[in-house]
Amino acid sequence: MSRTRVVVTGMGTTSPVGGDVASTWDALINGRSGVRHLTDEWAAEMPVKIAGRVAVEPTEILERVKARRLDRSSQFAMVAAMEAWKDSGLEGAEIDNDRLGVALASGIGGVTTLLANYDTLKEKGPRRVSPLAVPMLMPNAPAANISLYVGARAAVNTPVSACASGNEGIALALDQIRLGRADVVVAGGTEAAIHPLPMAAFANMMALSKNEGDPTTVSRPWDTGRDGFVLGEGAGVLVLESLEHALARGARIYAEVLGAGITADGHDIAQPDPLGRGGARAIIRCLSESEISPKDIVHINAHATSTPQGDIAEGLMIHATLGEQANNVVVTSTKSMTGHLLGGAGALESIATIMAIHERVVPPTINLDNLDPQVELDIATKPRELPSGDIAALNNSFGFGGANVAVAFGSYS
Q1: How do residues 180-195 score in pLDDT, each as one tens digit?
Q2: Domain check: are 138 and 280 in the same one?
Q3: pLDDT tens, residue by residue, 354-369
Q4: How many folded domains does the chain comprise?
Q5: Which end of the chain has the least Cβ crowding within 10 Å, N or C?
Q6: Active-site residues: which are they?
Q7: 315: Cα within 13 Å, side-chain hemisphere
Q8: Which residues span the domain enclosing 345?
Q9: Could you tell me if 278 and 157 lie in one domain?
């Protein structure tokens, strides 16, 4: 594979803390949580009654007719993609569409459309099932709809690797450009799973926190009082370009995508390897592909979901891969504010990582009152400045099935 340099020229998001990148970043830097009590009628009977709903409903942005033809996960993806595409300066620009691709991930896909149409089938019969159900519920619907929006005619892919999906979409986009298959790829992830069935399933497998206190304090990575993650929803989208293509059109560059590492645990369908060996191999591969050393890493946006075992395993893998440098890296978990977006998590957190590099400041981890003694990391609980000069940062994502993805971003110079 070539050593083609790949850069980020556009970003977009809709998240529990903001309706776009600017508002999301402002909330993250200022430590504002987007976790709230659910007001849906079905929530009253649920064992968990909180989640991170998006701050701005997609129907406030998308045309009503268009929104009705999209599953909620596709709505999120479209909102984020529209912002990223405009932000990149490619909207209305001359571009070779045969060299334009999409790599937009989802962990679950159109689950709300699937379950709603199944309810219709049971209650009203097969003739009342929507003819749009399949193109709405298929996991590649968000990627396909984005491709239609931007006119992409290179590969349009949908990685599905549970909670590592969003980062895998970015890794795939990087590969597509370095393999010479595209000049520009719209990449990221989306998820819309705040629905009684997924929430009941996550709760019954003891993955979700059942803390009934102030919802803004429930997601607490690395804290001794953590007892599970908080489900969030939304999407994050990046526009990746070869450096040559970006420079030729005078694009603004946020950061460089240095490399990615992808591995599998081979350990358990749900539980991570307690020693973090699979994730450690992903970080090592990421550093190798990026042609950087541990001393180049100054910041990590950790996967850290607020589960007892996972948070400890990630701390072990950071020390195993960075050695002494692990003590000098500023670590944070923005999930403390957004909750866990599943297939959209890696993409949203990549945006936070890029903004941290671009603005030279790390968002805090909130709700960390008592650090677990088994976690030996320098965790930012207030905004922390990053050094000047050339720097690099990691974004880690791990998912059910043992999926591990680490992506490295660097300051552009």
Answers
A1: 999 999 999 999 999 9
A2: no
A3: 999 999 999 999 999 9
A4: 2
A5: C
A6: 163, 303, 340
A7: 22
A8: 260-410
A9: no
